[in-house]
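Issue: ligand-bound run for magnesium ion - logging full I/O for the record.

Environment: standard queue, default settings, no custom constraints.

Inputs:
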Amino acid sequence: MKWSGVPEVATQRVMTQALATQYVFGGGSALLAALGADGPWWDRAALGALALTALAAGAVTFRWGARWPRPAFHGAVLLGTVLIGAGVVQSPDAATAVSVGALTTFLAMAACFFFSLPLAVVHLTLALGGLTAGLLVRGDVSLLTALSIDAMIVGLSVVTRGLVLRASSASRDPLTGLANRRGFDHALHEGMRAVSRTGEPMSAALLDLDHFKAINDSQGHDAGDRVLRQVAKVWRKDLPATAVLARHGGDEFALLLPGMAGPAALDLVRRIRDQYPDVGMSCGVAEHQPGESAAQLMRRADLALYTAKATGRGRCELDGGAASTLATDLAAALDAGSITVHFQPILDMRADRVVGVEALARWTHPERGPVSPVEFIAVAEQSGLMPRLGEHVFRTACAELAALHAATGRRLRVGINVSGRQLADPTFPERVRAVLAETGWPAAETVIEVTESLVEAESSTAVAALHELRALGLGVAIDDFGTGYSSLSRLDTLPAVILKLDSSFIATITSSTRRATMLRSIVGMADVLGLDVVAEGVETPEQDALLRTIGCSFGQGWLYGRPAPLPDVVELLDRSDRIAASSR
Ligand code: C2E
Ligand code: MG
Ligand code: MG
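Outputs:
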């Protein structure tokens, strides 16, 4: 808030309570003054009537003030000015007039608390003008006495304004000038109260800048700060007046949209985001549901943000929107058994032979066509379908490979991706054992692929599950090593036997000598630790040649074969076997 703006602490509820209290105490005080005054009964009666009007105004404000539009508070303060002016003129004696006039302090406080500075000054000028004129018209109060009351009221106004600004700054983010988390929580609770009273819709959104950390790391914190200020500025410009935008911390913003239903809120955030394409942003939106708490609403907005980020960033998702439709469709696909498994060859680079495959889930949506696993795995995680989906892929992969072995004698070691949600389930190792027993597939030919981030998130249960699986004879691979989540200490704590280097890392090894050096060191370190290394995403012969020179043991990528249904993979393997045999 700027010094001249409307104070943030002046919420509808606080204004209602303050004004009602002032009217009640002002009216009560005037009533006492009327009772205690000397003079003609009709003057005292008139003053008493004004006091009763003030008491009634207090009751009305208390009962209905929270529903008034903000401008109505100007009317309420003006009514006070009129009542006090009339009371001063009607007072039977000078002492009573001064005592009634002193009630102008209530008006001054309200004006400094509720309104922007220019409007507060207008109210104050009217109130002091009315008071001074009223006192002078009486003829029994001197100009200096009137001015002394004015001076006291002006002093009190200045102090009130200062305190109000100080209280407001505790709810403000100094960098962007937006509300901070505290200010947002305050607005959210106000919004919740309004919703329960009026039944109007309300939506909340969480906005997260994509790759903000990279800006901070590569261009410095000043550049990061500039981006945050810029975002605050452009967003504030396009939001409706009732919206509350807050910086929730770091690069996360929260937005409250009173009076707006979910789809409209989603449209709005999408529209604003699309206007400023240079700042990548993911958003999660949720509409308030009847009976829901503020914390539940924000949790759903957070879930929607999680889905938006997991499905490729730069997206906006509405909780209960497209993502949950996709979850329903995914559940139906699982019921119908239409989730299939493709297999991607893994090459032993020293023997130049395919020795294994990675099982990858595939889903062709009846209307949308093929859906990326990155997207539907995120949806499955969020909607609780992951254990079913994971087990389906596991069973399908083992059954198909066991059938292949039975028919041809060919045995391929299989890598199966397992999500953190599955590992967090204490029955997971037992389920794995059951699937292996049911399909007849050997544990020794099975590798569980886990990403470090997920293991980290679920921690002790997950690590215990991995140890149990190792004890059953399965291998454990750390997947996507070399992405944002890699940590060396994890190599030590996880019972892994394989390290899978992420394709984003392999993509740079032929263009950057530093990367090539890092690769050499990682392969050396893995060797010392007794870990096999699989290079993922090998696409070019140059990458293949460099990996061989460095001594990387396994490779996986389009160069050796794309993920495909098992019969296609087998055909490819048979063909390369024939070529190898004929060249011998
Ligand atoms: P991942 O486990 O790292 O799988 C390797 C991904 O790299 C696959 O993507 C594969 O198609 C892709 N890939 C392989 N070779 C190349 C290449 O040469 N160049 C490039 N650019 N990409 C290559 P896909 O199939 O889209 O799967 C993406 C991710 O989804 C997987 O990453 C895995 O984390 C997850 N996922 C897939 N299926 C399952 C599943 O059944 N369960 C779980 N929990 N996650 C799965
Ligand atoms: Mg994998
Ligand atoms: Mg991977």
